[in-house]
Write a structure and sequence with these properties.
By secondary structure, the protein is α/β, with parallel strands linked by helices. Strand 5 and strand 6 form a beta hairpin.
């Protein structure tokens, strides 16, 4: 008999040939017809395995934005240099890289260039010469990195328009690269815009000018970096937040980041959820869906509508995205043995592996009869991800309490989450076990203010981000993140 994890990997789709597969499930197969119900549903999006990344993967366009301010002196700047040299070693000749430096002033150290042997050596030599000085114009550096991508887009568009005057379409000549900003800093901004709520709108204004998705990945160096700044930027820009505590963490952090970017299976994912007759979506549970208030501790997103849609960004090889929603289902006048649609999912995006757009539609149906019947296997799948969302909420709330000096209350929040997970139906499943391990480790890291501010605060933020995104960070250092790590990241 198959295990639950094996069953979970076999997702039904409307078309088996599609790259990204979608499954829409609920915790019930039948509902009593003459009663109103609240039912949990879940959408699972699963990317395929990329068998040959060397030939299948899209090229990368990366802009590295490096902090060389005075606060980065010593071990921090050396770790940044080593990080960059590691990243360069992973790039191929059809990948492009640019490097921006910031202190009080901002400069472009290395223009966006293809990474052949000559340019790799030039970039490496320039990185070795970087020294620290002055203040920290973090926002200016980030904006300059995005401006480079905008400038490149404008140049490419002009060139393409000129080149295609004798052809029917420019689509074949368009560069289909995975584009990202990599921000290396301690997050101690003190020049120009310094507040997160000021930087995010300006950052997203620039990102919106780009035709391609450009995520921002933030690497925080040292135990004194500003977690809220870096996690906030990565949350808003669809990237990841990594805590680089020491030199040993560099390879694991970059293994996850670069390995993931090398294995992007689909981009520009857009999901639309729509309900059947007599059904509405009450809320989307947890995760990073509630971005209306970046300081909000409540991760549930109120919908109260028959339609919900949003952008999901990109998905790496073998990754999954699981969206849990609470449905309100009204009562009926008469029972029926016919299947009725309760939730329909339309997913569209760009298939990086095939180079084509795709769109798929998947439906969840139930029967409104005399008796409510639970679906045990699907209920367990949903329960696993409820545990994930409970963990995210607990980490977020505990970190907020600890930041205010309430370590005892923060530990209580984590202990309550542990007890809730222990009472769940899926306490023996691998993800739940890993979540429990994460929570217990975080309690240990909150033993004192010294341990919390020394590493616990950063690790908690990174765990939270990893579980929100269902994406690994430091795959060899964080227990539960092993479950989110793709083969591409492991290979690095």
């Amino acid at each position: 008999m198959e295990t639950l994890n094996q069953q979970f990997s076999k997702l039904s789709t409307t078309e088996s040939s599609q790259t990204v597969r979608v499954d829409v499930t609920s915790e019930v197969t039948h509902l009593k017809f003459d009663v109103c119900h609240e039912v949990l549903g879940m959408v699972t999006i699963k990317a395929p395995f990329c068998e040959n990344l060397e030939t299948q993967r899209a090229p990368l366009d990366l802009v590295a934005v490096l902090d060389q301010s005075g606060s980065m002196s010593g071990d921090k700047i050396e770790m940044v240099k080593n990080s960059m040299m590691f990243a360069i070693s992973q790039l191929k000749t059809d990948d492009r890289l640019a490097i921006v430096l910031f202190e009080t002033e901002v400069q472009v150290l290395f223009e966006l260039k293809f990474m052949d042997a000559k340019n790799k050596q030039e970039a490496t030599d320039l990185i070795k010469l970087i020294s620290t000085k002055n203040m920290t114009a973090l926002a200016g550096g980030l904006f300059q990195g995005l401006d480079l991508l905008i400038k490149d887009q404008e140049t490419t568009t002009t060139t393409t328009t000129t080149t295609t005057t004798t052809t029917s379409s420019s689509s074949d000549s368009e560069r289909k690269a995975v584009t990202s900003i990599l921000l290396f800093t301690d997050g101690q901004a003190n020049q120009g815009l310094t507040k997160l709520e000021e930087i995010i709108p300006e950052m997203n204004n620039r990102r919106n000018q780009l035709n391609r998705v450009s995520n921002v990945f933030c690497f925080g160096y040292g135990s004194d970096h500003t977690v809220e700044m870096l996690k906030g930027l990565s949350d808003s820009a669809g990237g990841m937040y990594y805590y680089v505590e020491n030199e040993e963490n560099i390879a694991s952090a970059f293994g996850d980041c670069i390995g993931g970017l090398l294995s992007v299976a689909a981009q520009n994912l857009h999901i639309k959820l729509e309900t059947g007759p007599g059904v509405q979506i009450k809320k989307i549970l947890g995760s990073s869906l509630n971005k209306t208030n970046i300081k909000s501790q409540n991760k549930d997103f109120e919908v109260n509508s028959k339609i919900y849609e949003r952008e999901l960004g990109d998905i790496y090889s073998e990754e999954e995205r699981n969206i849990v929603c609470l449905l309100e289902i009204s009562k009926m006048e008469m029972a029926s043995t016919e299947s009725r649609e309760i939730l329909i999912c339309e997913l569209s995006g760009f298939d990086v592996l095939k180079g084509d757009p795709f769109k798929t539609r998947t439906v969840c149906e139930i029967i409104r009869d005399q008796v409510t019947k639970l679906d045990s296997d699907k209920g367990k799948r949903i329960d696993i991800h409820r545990n994930r969302l409970i963990t995210i909420q607990a980490l977020n709330s505990a970190r907020t309490l600890a930041d205010s000096g309430y370590l005892d209350q923060a530990r209580n929040v984590l202990n309550q989450a542990i007890e809730e997970l222990k009472q769940s139906l899926t306490v023996e499943e691998s993800l739940t076990k890993a979540l429990l391990q994460d929570l217990k480790e975080c309690i240990t890291d909150m033993e004192s203010r010294t341990t919390y501010y020394g590493k616990g605060k950063m690790k908690m933020a990174m765990y939270e981000k990893s579980h929100e995104s269902e994406r690994g960070c430091h795959s060899r250092a964080l227990y539960s993140c092993l479950l989110y790590t793709s083969d591409a990241a492991d290979d690095l």
